[in-house]
Amino acid sequence: MDNFSYVAPTRYLFGRGVENEVGRLAAEAGWSRVMVVYGQGSAVRSGLLSRVTASLSQSGVPFIQFGGIAPNPTAAPVREAIVMARRACVDGIIAVGGGSVIDSAKAIAAGALYDGDFWDFYIGAATVTDAIPVGVVLTIPAAGSEGSGNSVITNEETGQKISIRTDKALRPVFALLNPELTMTLPQAQTAAGVADMMAHIIERYLTTTPDVEVTDRLSEGLLTAIMTSARRVIANPNDYEARANIMWSGTLAHNGICGCGRREDWTSHGLEHVLSALYGVTHGAGLAVVFPAWITYMADRLPAKPAQLGRRVFGVTATDDREAALATAAALRAFFAELNLPLTLGDLGITDPDFAKFTADFHRDKGNPYRGYWTMTPTDTEAVYRLMV
Ligand code: NZQ
Ligand code: ZN
Asked: Closest by alpha carbon to 283, among 200, 193, 159?
């Protein structure tokens, strides 16, 4: 096991009605003016936004609102909101939504306290050391941004989708998780969220660090719980207990606990972010295509961990590691098929893939070579993309 530092300062309130605590928590935090950030309408239609603003008013916390954040969020709204936040002297930001809203809120939070353009953080020209505190009312279990120190933004001018990770500065101070709020999700979004949280665990599971049994077992338990609960939710979208288990899994998948003591991979996320940036595909749906291809490619190179994953989580019985890794890829693909997720680039609507461009974009953003579980050269990268057809 490697040495590690694990920081998880977020306060979680979980269960029915917790969104109504947002005013109390904002007041307790001493925020004098809050910016409420939300998406393209689901929180308005469900009445959630009204409950959030009513809670703030009842607690005497003044607020301004910034809505319209789109999935795969872009830089322009972030810049617009930074100007607003500065003008209004906002000292707390509340994200009402999923990863796209939360990541934008984090970008606003860091950018508002920075003299230059917020994109500097994403291209490595500056480091986030300070940010306005962010609180979250989560509406979709998927990205895990409610507990992570990450933010992912697409620069629509350069075509780059880049993730930054901070140890502490961008971790939300509180996150309110009411599983009932997720019952209005379209089936495709629920499924994409499940694929994303599974990917967050498997990206960490695919490690070359030996002897990480505790973290491995935590990961395997989470994956098993997610799959069991996902099947229940597909059968009955209003199954509160299954929704609750998925929601908490999504947070644990990405708050760092599954990475303790080991090197992490993140190749598949890099491969997917290229697709989201170019085609706007839903992140989790993209991962459902990428991950089985990636594991298939590893079967001939570094099959040990995919083989272990298959034996411990997917009931794979093959004793040969290569065979077991191939069976793991097949089992993962079969599970995604059960959720009606896309399985090929064609299913994602990418009918004329430009593999050379995908490969160039991957290495532009992730470095060349990219050293994850496997050291990815452009030859490897293109070969993995070609397995997605
Ligand atoms: O915009 P609205 O109208 O709210 O609709 C959203 C959106 O269309 C809808 N939705 C959310 N909650 C709903 C709902 N519809 C009905 N009922 C509800 N309760 O769902 C759609 C997707 O929302 P989005 O926030 O985009 O989903 P997700 O949480 O999957 O976030 C995806 C983004 O997070 C990034 C992804 O790359 C992508 O940009 N990621 C962020 C990470 C992080 N910060 O740690 C890690 C991840 O790996 C990921 O890369
Ligand atoms: Zn993800």
From this structure: 193
Kindly state the average pLDDT of the residues 130-136: 98
- Cβ-contact 38, 65 below 8 angstroms: yes
Residue partners of 48: CB distance under 8 A and separation at least 6: 19, 96, 137, 139, 181
CA–CA–CA angle 196, 202, 206 (5° rounding): 150
The rounded Å distance from CA 326 to ligand 2 centre is 23
- Joined tokens for residue 101: 């809203």
Largest CA distance in the chain: 64
AA identity, residue 305: K
pTM confidence score: 0.98
Counting ligand 1 atoms within 8 A of each CB, the residue from 66, 181, 283, 365 with the most, and so the one to mutate, is 283
Q: Which of 140, 265, 274 to mutate to test the pocket of ligand 1 (most atoms within 8 A of CB)?
A: 140
Average pLDDT estimate for 270-297? 98
Kindly provide the b/e burial profile for residues 104-134, where b requires at least 16 CB atoms within 10 angstroms of the residue's own CB: bbbbbbbbbbbeebbbbbbeeebebeebbbb
| Rounded average pLDDT over 243-266 | 98
Q: Could you identify the atom of ligand 1 that is nearest to the CA of residue 103?
A: 44
For the chain, give the mean pLDDT.
98
Residue-wise pLDDT tens digits, 136-150: 999 999 999 999 999
pLDDT in tens, 27-47: 999 999 999 999 999 999 999
Phi, psi of 231 (to 5 degrees): -65, -40
How far apart are alpha carbons 50 and 298 in whole angstroms? 49
SS3 label, residue 150: strand
State the Cα torsion 58-61-67-73 to the nearest 10°: -120
Separation of alpha carbons 329 and 169, rounded Å = 36
Tell me the three state secondary structure of residue 7.
coil
How far apart, in whole angstroms, are the C-alpha atoms of residue 252 and residue 258?
7
